[in-house]
Amino acid sequence: QVQLVESGGGLVQPGESLTLSCKTSGFTFNNFGMSWYRQAPGKEREPVAYISSDGGSRDYAGSVEGRFTISRDSAKNTVYLQMNDLKPEDTAVYFCYRPLGTYWGQGTQVIVSS
24: which strand partners? Predict the structure, then answer.
């Protein structure tokens, strides 16, 4: 039924950029807000960004505010996370998450290293 498939992760150097995608299916996309979480090795999973169902409201963790941008495309049922000025501390597996019912994607690995 509900599927969330992340893509776009990879290995980048500090200061570079990546854009992650979360392709969704199995539900009415525009009825739900969507979130990105991340989990670094040995650490708890933490929220990174949230966007409301209509895209009108967005929220970010303080550690990424000003560097990351969450967006959504209703025509493609896809949520994006544009990550600029990446830092080694951003290294983590990034997960797409749908609240209300609670659904997770499989995650995509981001490694920021020189």
Answer: 4
pLDDT per residue as tens, the chain (114 positions):
999 999 999 999 999 999 999 999 999 999 999 999 999 999 999 999 999 999 999 999 999 999 999 999 999 999 999 999 999 999 999 999 999 988 999 999 999 999
Write the burial class of residue 25 (CB in 10 Å: 0-12 exposed, 13-18 middle, 19+ buried): exposed
Contact yes or no for 113/15 (Cβ under 8 A): no
Closest CA to 92 of 23, 45, 51, 59: 45
DSSP labels for 62-81?
A: TTTTTTEEEEEETTTTEEEE
**What residues contact residue 75 under an 8 Å CB cut-off, 6+ apart?**
none
Q: Which amino acid is at 107?
A: G
**Phi and psi dihedrals of 31, rounded to 5?**
-95, -5
